[in-house]
Model the fold of this input.
Amino acid sequence: MGRRVGWTRRVAGEKGAVATLVILFLPCLLAAAALVIDVGALLLARAQLAAAADMGALAGVQDLDYELLARGQIVIRESEAVADAASWARANLAGRAFLVEEAISVRVSVRNMPRGGDATCPVTGRTLLQPTVCVLIQAVVRPPFLPVSGWVTMSVHADASVVGRP
Done:
């Protein structure tokens, strides 16, 4: 059996071709990796904002006026609901990665049903059929690798309603 010399033979002009390709494509690969990480950071921040908005809305909707509830009326105590929803939403966002804490804005509104009518959500305009707490969170997200693209402002909305039994 003879050795195959042809498999290891290289043409003299091809020496260093792989190094040239690595040098050319390495910046593109690093930029793509940074973009993937930044998009992941934006998706994570959006999920964190949505969870905080949900938590705030659910906390606020529990502040019912129990005296009116004993008489058959479902009414949310507005001042307590606004305070609870905002504090729970802010507490859920404390120390989260990629969020600029100084730029987080939490807006809470409580919609109790007017007599014989419907109310609308102040953010979406959706018709509400039950007493509802609406939470809107706006935050600035700082992507880790692409400061050239700047910071991104995100808005997330959640609401929770009280549903009475017939």
